[in-house]
Write a structure and sequence with these properties.
With 391 residues, the chain is an alpha/beta fold. Helix content is 40%, strand content 15%. It has helices spanning 34-44, 48-51, 61-75, 90-101, 116-124, 141-150, 176-188, 243-250, 253-258, 263-274, 276-304, 329-338, 371-389; strands at residues 20-21, 84-87, 107-112, 128-135, 138-139, 158-162, 191-196, 220-225, 237-240, 309-310, 318-322, 341-342, 344-345, 361-365. The longest helix has 29 residues, at 276-304. The chain binds pyridoxal-5'-phosphate. The site of pyridoxal-5'-phosphate has 13 residues, from helix 4.
Length: 391
């Protein structure tokens, strides 16, 4: 761990030598476009009074405009910049939605399984998590309806959080028709559908999943992020929402007092996005992650096809692996790390009341390793499983 002189850490986590760590869902640090960002910062700092001032509440205009164009060209959505708010990342966007739409004690619906730290964030905001069961096409309408029936009439607003495209943790995408039904049912009850779309723009096949397209329904909110597209340390993301909701957040005390989120970073990033460097960077990202996604499938096939089942993602970072039912992924983690491989146990992705459901699952991220390391990691995982099955 890199530390400062007093011993305090600098980064949230660093790699442990000897361990192929397929646990964290992070971008590959080797992909961070440091030289392009240096040029962009240089450009931005030519106007210090703009780069270093309090930013516009909704976020810097050029980046809002660039995002509107890019979302149109990459996923076909016509989005007016008045529907976009810049945030300090998707997590911060979710937190802002909590403070705008909810009060402690409110109900929040979440697909199960889902992104573990979103569960932490939502319960930390005092929300009562109501899980929505999923099948192969995504969260089921019946399960959402069951939850909606229980929603207290006194609750002012609520939301349903889900990762509809290349999901964390399963790597799968919600069927397009299913998503439309879920949105219709939620909106009819006045419930917002909060899509966490941090992987939605990382599709590795010619045709992105239908669920990538954003609905114009005013109850749909999308959280985007540059964490997986450029670098997480930028703390930069965006929310797409109805203009009234964007205005409510751009006019709240936080924005009035502090201005737009991550303003200097957003201003510098707008130079990077507007330069030819962005297209090259994004093209490389899709190519490299796409190759790793395929490589992970080949290694799983090679080592685990006799004993495990897993998902086949078309984008994002993750595979959701089911190990033999006699095993508990969380208990196995210690010996896996001793054998030089790590992963995220499935139980982490369920709310407390459902954690047993994730017992024989684990999440593997292919984003940070080349094919040979992925192969080595999956080979080690096979050895761990064999050692515990008594083979
Ligand atoms: C589904 C999902 N949402 C949000 C985040 C965090 O995004 P950000 O860095 O923009 O806060 C992650 C990161 O792992 C994620 O997987």
């Amino acid at each position: 761990m890199k530390v400062c002189e007093t011993g305090l850490p600098v980064l949230q986590l660093e790699d442990r030598p000897g361990i192929i760590d397929l646990g964290p869902g992070k971008a590959d640090a080797r992909s961070y476009p440091a030289a392009s960002l240096e040029r962009a910062w240089h450009e931005a700092l030519r106007s210090p009074e703009i780069a270093l001032g309090y930013g516009a509440n909704q976020g810097v205009g050029p980046l809002l405009e660039w995002l509107a164009c890019w979302l149109r060209s990459s996923q076909g959505d016509e989005i007016d910049p008045s529907r976009i708010l810049l945030t300090a990342g998707a997590s911060s966007g979710l937190d802002r939605l909590c403070s705008t739409l909810t009060a402690p004690g409110d109900v929040c619906f979440c697909e199960a399984p889902t992104y573990n730290y979103a569960l932490r964030l939502l319960s930390g905001r005092g929300l009562t998590i109501v899980p929505v069961e999923s099948d192969a096409d995504g969260p089921t309408v019946e399960s959402l309806d069951d939850g909606l029936r229980l929603l207290p009439r006194t609750q002012r607003q609520a939301f349903f959080y889900l990762v509809p495209v290349h999901a964390n943790p399963r790597g799968t995408s919600v069927n397009g028709e299913r998503l439309t039904q879920l949105i219709d049912h939620a909106a009819a009850r006045g419930v917002y559908v909060v899509r966490d779309d941090v992987y939605a723009l990382l599709s590795y096949t010619a045709e992105p999943p239908a669920a990538t397209r954003l609905s114009e329904n005013p109850f749909v909110v999308s959280l985007g992020s540059f964490s997986k597209l450029i670098a997480p340390g930028l703390r930069l993301g965006w929310i797409v929402a109805a203009p009234e909701l964007v205005r409510a957040m751009a006019d709240d005390g936080l924005a009035l007092s502090g201005g737009g989120a991550s303003h200097s970073v957003a201003f510098a990033t707008s130079f990077f996005c507007d330069s030819g460097d962005w297209d090259v960077h994004y093209g490389n990202l899709l190519r490299v992650y796409g190759m790793r996604c395929d490589a992970m499938q080949r290694s799983l096939e090679r080592y685990l096809s006799q004993i495990c089942k897993w998902t086949t993602p078309r984008g994002g970072f993750f595979v959701w692996l089911r190990i033999p039912a006699s095993l508990d992924a969380a208990s196995l983690l210690g010996s896996a790390e001793e054998m030089g491989v790590s992963y995220a146990p499935g139980a982490w992705f369920y709310p407390a009341s459902r954690q047993a459901r994730g017992r024989d699952y684990l999440r593997l991220a292919f984003s940070r390793y080349d094919a040979s390391d992925l192969d080595e990691g999956i080979g080690r995982l096979r050895q761990v499983i064999d050692a515990h099955r008594g083979c």
